[in-house]
Amino acid sequence: MDEQLKQIGERLRGLRDVLDIPAEEVAQTIGIATDKYEKIEVGEVDITISNLMKIAHKYGVSAEELMFAEAPRMKAYSVVRRGQGMSVERTKAYKYQSLVSGFVDHKADVFIVTVEPKPGARTIYKNTHPGQEFNLVLEGQMELYIGGKTIVLNEGDSIYFDSTKPHGMLAVGDKAVKFLAFTVE
Predict the structure, then answer these.
(1) Looking at residues 126-138, what average pLDDT do you find?
(2) DSSP E strand stretches across 29-157
(3) Which of 87, 92, 94, 134 makes an SS bond possible with 182, Cβ 3.0 to 4.6 Å?
(4) CA 39, 165, 128: angle at the middle one, nearest 5?
(5) Cα-to-chain-centroid distance, residue 72
(6) Would you say 98 and 111 are in contact if contact means Cβ atoms under 8 Å apart?
(7) pLDDT per residue over 57-98, tens digit each?
């Protein structure tokens, strides 16, 4: 069992305990079956960043608190030095590094996302979340799937889209893709 997934699950369970929320309600919030949500809480099943954001938004906590167990502290500005942003490796293939985790009440979530290539993979997990998203490819190449369309993005390319549409990405070739993901409701 991945230790980070287990810790995120423990924080989700703690949130439910503090707010006296049944597992069924949280599962309904993110649109999954209760038994699957309960597996998330024990670290047996992965949870998407978008679902963590939905939970955080609904229950008035920051996504960073659920991902990293750290509450933002800065109110005037927050500097993140190269490679120093709080990060979580959701799975071996996806790593998210937050660039706004230190700022209280930030209005957007900004991550550097690294996706490892999966040679021969064609199946992609798609998710949705409220608001809009901006992606800028920093390194590599990716296929981005949005609402039934496939868009190839190369280094330096960017896209802005409605994140309520099902979307997901896949690294192209044998090199990881690294991109800036900016989401706002």
Answers:
(1) 89
(2) 87-91, 94-98, 108-115, 132-139, 141-146, 149-154
(3) 134
(4) 20
(5) 17
(6) yes
(7) 888 787 777 777 666 555 555 565 676 666 655 555 678 888
Residues with Cβ within 8 Å of 168's Cβ and at least 6 positions away in sequence, in order, are: 124, 125, 126, 127, 144, 145
C-alpha torsion sign, points 80, 94, 71, 127: positive
For residue 44, give both structure tokens. 């047996």
Given this model, what pLDDT does residue 60 score?
Answer: 79
Residue with tokens 């490679």: 83
Please write down the HEC assignment for all residues of 115-128. ECCCCCCCCCCCEC
Task: Quote the percentage of the chain above a pLDDT of 90.
Answer: 33
Show Cβ contacts of residue 26 under 8 Å, excluding neighbours closer than 6 positions: 12, 16, 37, 55
Phi/psi for 114 (5° steps) reads -115, 125
Are the CB atoms for 23 and 55 separated by under 8 Å?
Answer: no
Write down the pLDDT at residue 88: 58
- pLDDT on residue 185: 77
Mean pLDDT value of segment 46-67: 82
Neighbours of 60 (CB within 10 A): 8
